[in-house]
């Protein structure tokens, strides 16, 4: 089979293609380019030479310029949106590499949305309690996805390489995430799948009078104030308010309704106790950002707002509720394990993806950029 043709497409065609898919990452919607305004961006489409009018795949490509040189790292976060079950992925990836090279890219990075392994909540809980396996990757998975191994083998054969975990500019989108499967379930099924503590906290929030409602762009100020408070408490660097305003404006105005973006607020007696950002593309929904107040934690606003988002995801037709990234640590003494335990309480599963892969197009420049990023 000959390679597919690749060329720039309009944002309208890009959004229409995303909207036609069962699911795709919101990081691959054309609106994400506006969120990442410091990167040069383009929408690309793949076409069959025999039927050049039919769009077979799409990608949002972000170009990050190398310091002092007009050469770029071409980055496809959680993409591209192609047929990852294809017998020959090279039909898609060879023309992508050639196009990126023509645009001045010294390297390509992409994150195939292809899972490799899954661990149930019980398996993770037992592993933490046992204390014998400090890393999730060391625990026997409940499910091994054959498609993951196939994609990895093809990427190796095509010259792509897995980045060094945690080094240089290797840290991009998370390789391990936590998801709650929703397909074929009722809200009662999802609730029953949670652990006793989660069910009790959801019930307590309701009894205490916590009210969860949808917010608008004006409510982002309240969200951000709570988010900064959360960052100080949990020791991470918060994003500025304009970033979230840009995200709201960009993702709520995309054509063809390819992305559903919502802000949720949980109030108790007039006080904002939790606020979150929820996103859905097709059948995949995400808990993207969350914030909660230090005061009134006993009213369990965080549990109430999560339950509302899960319920709305189920009602909207989503088959996955994605709580995004987790580290792979299972060490009970590691401070990060608390986040895993919180998510495990939902009764979902940890999912490992194939991760982000690199294709050096100009090895000296690629090596120099990697060294620069690791020294920052």
From TrEMBL:
InterPro entries: Acyl_CoA_acyltransferase, FEMABX, PG_Glycine_Bridge_Synth. Keywords: Acyltransferase, Cell shape, Cell wall biogenesis/degradation, Peptidoglycan synthesis, Transferase. The keyword Cell wall biogenesis/degradation applies. It holds the Pfam family FemAB. The keyword Transferase applies. Signal peptide: none annotated. PROSITE patterns: FEMABX. Belongs to the FemABX family. PANTHER family: LIPID II:GLYCINE GLYCYLTRANSFERASE (PTHR36174). This is Lipid II:glycine glycyltransferase FemX.
